[in-house]
Amino acid sequence: xxxxxxxxxxxxxxxxxxxxxxxxxxxxxxxxxxxxxxxxxxxxxxxxxxxxxxxxxxxxxxxxxxxxxxxxxxxxxxxxxxxxxxxxxxxxxxxxxxxxxxxxxxxxxxxxxxxxxxxxxxxxxxxxxxxxxxxxxxxxxxxxxxxxxxxxxxxxxx
Amino acid sequence: xxxxxxxxxxxxxxxxxxxxxxxxxxxxxxxxxxxxxxxxxxxxxxxxxxxxxxxxxxxxxxxxxxxxxxxxxxxxxxxxxxxxxxxxxxxxxxxxxxxxxxxxxxxxxxxxxxxxxxxxxxxxxxxxxxxxxxxxxxxxxxxxxxxxxxxxxxxxxxxxxxxxxxxxxxxxxxxxxxxxxxxxxxxxxxxxxxxxxxxxxxxxxxxxxxxxxxxxxxxxxxxxxxxxxxxxxxxxxxxxxxxxxxxxxxxxxxxxxxxxxxxxxxxxxxxxxxxxxxxxxxxxxxxxxxxxxxxxxxxxxxxxxxxxxxxxxxxxxxxxxxxxxxxxxxxxxxxxxxxxxxxxxxxxxxxxxxxxxxxxxxxxxxxxxxxxxxxxxxxxxxxxxxxxxxxxxxxxxxxxxxxxxxxxxxxxxxxxxxxxxxxxx
Lengths: 158, 425
Description:
heterodimer; A: alpha+beta; three-stranded antiparallel sheet; 3 strands; 46% helix; 18% strand; disordered N terminus; B: alpha/beta; 37% helix; 17% strand; globular
């Protein structure tokens, strides 16, 4: 009874920032070089992402040099991919993983978690998505793909 | 509007859920009946009555309740047999759903022996199983498993741009190597109605077994298993106003007798000794374990309800509403229907479409905010989506309780969706 959406909630879901990223996704396309490529799907709706990560050595461990992707899916999954790439590119892997964890916590918080804008930046726009259980998987698709690809690189270099 | 069920408003009152409201006081516009249909009060009441007054296990309990439960369960089998024109009630097997029924056939064929002289035999290299590109995953994956396990080859009919089976290469697809032809009667995605009797006739010329997935046909049109030409026909209860957890496998006795048992357990046996067992005849041979009793009873009530409405009238209603929906959808800019749209072509009530610039998931979300329930995704028919170059679609599906006003609400909500995502005219 509580999961239905009223017109008001629709605007909470489709924040302006999300629609902007959907229309103009950042860092889209597949690029070289890369150390790992993964393909993730959401079996229920068919959304798909092919994602590559390129890591380089930094002074304090590996750094996310590039994240490139080819994705098909809804506005939430597309915008989330764009925001994720913005957030992790250029960051040390360790810091990017911490951001990943913060985003995951936000998405799994059922709308009760207040996001930290300093950490998640445009990612805070997804706070409303957490109230729509059916859409959380959309928002997490590319984040999970990125984590998976990154783990693959780290394992190989370990 | 011609063709609508008379007393539609009275019929709607049979379905209590249709009068509920959603968040914000929105009335429910339920256009997801190909996914699952709603249930009339008589089905709900029959199931409650059974649980309140007649509950016991079937065919095992030597007491009055056991007799009543067994009688109710077997009466449901009679109702199913009569509803689909089965020559014998013993040919009606209760399963969990259509998927289980299809898996039962595909699995037992993997173990079957014989030379196919009466459409059952052992499969191996050189044998072919023929399906179609428009199948639900439940009529694809079991045959993939079967052919992988036996070394047989899986082939399929392609689709035309209009969403019909491409029968141009029929003669090269149905050959003396073809052992099984399994196809859907009505597509759950495209709405296409396939010429099953004609395909069955061709398949029988080469001695192949014909399996028909009637999950979308039984709810929408009169179904006569003999006239269909099928050797095996399956459907699920919950799409024809019955409960979930109950499906039906009908098969010609000669076929079912030749297939080996599927699940082993209670009720499917004749005598069990530690060294080995002998098996019950049909239908019990394929009904191991305590069956879904109250679900079968509910299905019986559901098919009685449909019978009393008249399947000819249900079919006419569905066609009138579907035509009205196709006309309404055609007014939405940037909307493309996948599947037959020609008024001269018979089609089912599932209409899948794309809307330029908005992903199906987002369409469904905005529609839901207006109380309009549709399905978004690949509808368990990913290959058919791939055929049309899309990854997913939005699907509206009507049923006997759908009104023209609900179609209007859908079209209006689609217009609203376009404006919400700021799409121009």
